[in-house]
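Repro:
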Amino acid sequence: GEIERLLLVTVKSSQKIFTEAEVASLTGICAEHLHNFARSRHLGFIARAAEAAGARADQWLFTLSDLMVLVTLFPRCTH
């Protein structure tokens, strides 16, 4: 059930920001669904990374409260 799913997501209490890869791994939601759901619910935010650092220009970041909303409202992807 949903309560069991909530209990399965364990994070360090000191961690406040999660990358999209971390969120996908913790929640089982694929990146495409994560982006679409985040946009529709106004979750997360896009960080502009310095391209010189070799990172992608746009990186979705999520707060702990965003993560809890995702776990509660969105099922794990099964595809």
